[in-house]
Design goal:
Number of strands: 4
CATH class: Alpha Beta
Distance between the termini: 62 Å
Largest sheet: 4 strands, antiparallel
CATH architecture: 2-Layer Sandwich
CATH topology: Alpha-Beta Plaits
Number of helices: 6
Structural class: alpha+beta
Radius of gyration: 23 Å
Strand content: 15-25%
Shape: elongated
Length: 146
């Protein structure tokens, strides 16, 4: 767990595109009326505060749609010069592109978790037969003689 210098932690609450809106998660956090720092982002919210309080609030948000809301620890508090775009001259912050890529697959993960909970049987995947080396050679030779 990444504990900041002031003893707080920060967690990213990342919301799948097929779930609630990020503002719904933020409203759930605001409604807790607990003294924590909340930063709304395009993918969800960042929650900073004492570990026990952050964990409780984040748990409440996840319970809104537990298979489609995910939590990721953040090593730096909001506004930290090492991550803040303002201090780095603009552009995406380090790790943004990776996070954006992760967010893209959250609906697939959420559906798989839903299916698992509902005991949906796995589909049998038929693997194509492997191509023999002799068949590959024949294909290459026929293409070369064209």
């Amino acid at each position: 767990m990444a504990v900041h210098e002031d003893g707080t932690i920060t967690k990213l609450v990342v919301i799948s595109s097929d779930s609630i809106l990020p503002i719904d998660a933020a409203l759930e956090i605001y409604g807790s009326e607990i003294d924590i720092t909340i930063k709304e982002t395009c993918f969800g919210t960042m929650v900073t505060g004492p570990e026990d309080v952050v964990n409780k609030v984040v748990s409440n948000v996840v319970n809104l749609d537990r298979n489609h809301i995910f939590v990721k620890e953040r090593g730096f508090p909001p506004g930290d010069d090492r991550r803040c775009r303002a201090g780095r001259g603009g552009g995406p912050r380090p790790g943004f592109h990776f996070l954006r890529n992760e967010i893209g697959i959250l609906p697939i993960i959420g559906k798989a978790l839903d299916d698992y909970e509902n005991n949906v049987p796995l589909e049998k995947v038929v693997q194509p037969e492997k191509l023999k080396v002799s068949q590959l050679k024949d294909i290459i030779e026929s293409e070369l003689t064209r």
